[in-house]
Amino acid sequence: xxxxxxxxxxxxxxxxxxxxxxxxxxxxxxxxxxxxxxxxxxxxxxxxxxxxxxxxxxxxxxxxxxxxxxxxxxxxxxxxxxxxxxxxxxxxxxxxxxxxxxxxxxxxxxxxxxxxxxxxxxxxxxxxxxxxxxxxxxxxxxxxxxxxxxxxxxxxxxxxxxxxxxxxxxxxxxxxxxxxxxxxxxxxxxxxxxxxxxxxxxxxxxxxxxxxxxxxxxxxxxxxxxxxxxxxxxxxxxxxxxxxxxxxxxxxxxxxxxxxxxxxxxxxxxxxxxxxxxxxxxxxxxxxxxxxxxxxxxxxxxxxxxxxxxxxxxxxxx
Length: 318
Fold this sequence. Notes:
Helix content is 46%, strand content 15%. By secondary structure, the chain is an alpha+beta fold. Strands 1-2-3-5-4 form a five-stranded antiparallel beta sheet, sandwiched between helices. A three-stranded antiparallel beta sheet has the order 6-8-9. Helix 5 (142-156) packs parallel to helix 9 (248-275), helix 6 crosses helix 9 and helix 9 (248-275) packs across helix 11 (301-309). The relative contact order is 0.14. It contains eleven helices and ten strands. The longest helix is centred in the C-terminal third of the chain and has 28 residues, at 248-275. The chain has helices at 15-26, 72-84, 113-118, 120-131, 142-156, 168-180, 217-227, 232-243, 248-275, 282-297, 301-309; strands spanning 34-38, 44-51, 54-61, 91-95, 100-104, 109-110, 185-188, 197-199, 204-206, 213-216. The protein has two domains: 15-106, Phosphorylase Kinase, domain 1 (2-Layer Sandwich); 110-309, Alpha-Beta Complex (Aminoglycoside 3'-phosphotransferase, Chain: A, domain 2), CATH 3.90.1200.
């Protein structure tokens, strides 16, 4: 059984303190380090550090990440597994209790949403490698996480989009349908934002495993489409590329899991909007996920999706 990161007494360390800790561990032979802060990162600060033949990315997490269901011990272990699968970056160092993870720098182009839509078959190939790789150390269940987010939002009286709680019943129907005939659990990334894909001209690599854990592949596919705001044709292409075939059930489960993701990530954004010290428009993040979730949860299509998604499919990829 894995252990939780050690508690640190006193105030939580800030990014500068965490970076200094990482640099002290990485320094060797007195060589100076060149440090460049990298853009992006919605729960952390990222720095590229070069020193001699060392070229790594130091990720220092915000103290608020614990509110968002991020377990850094599991992130570390799952990052190692993803690297062994040939999809993630090699893991160089991890500092328990400090929110510090160091991985090898991967050269390549970071995707935008349009790049995701244009490279779905290559992405599907990378996902198949990840999902067939070493087992992850943790479980990721979007519905359980949504409930934990909801408890935090209510306890702290954080702002949510108007009408969010009125959709709980419809979201419950989605969960019930997806639980009837669940698919096998595989190692999943679970947070496939466009910025988490790196294209080195050969393979598509996947970075940042904060939310990783075993899950259904259908969540990975549906969440990817939702996060890049892709359309139904893209979903069909991705499902076919991943499974080698398309069926009403495969499409429905991917779309329903994507819906569950958008509904839950709405609360992720609400929490970040209320507590994060990062310079990002988290309210825009919140509404961008709530609006499509609300539209589908109140749509006439929902019943058809629930019926198709609850069916059994012995021919699905194992």
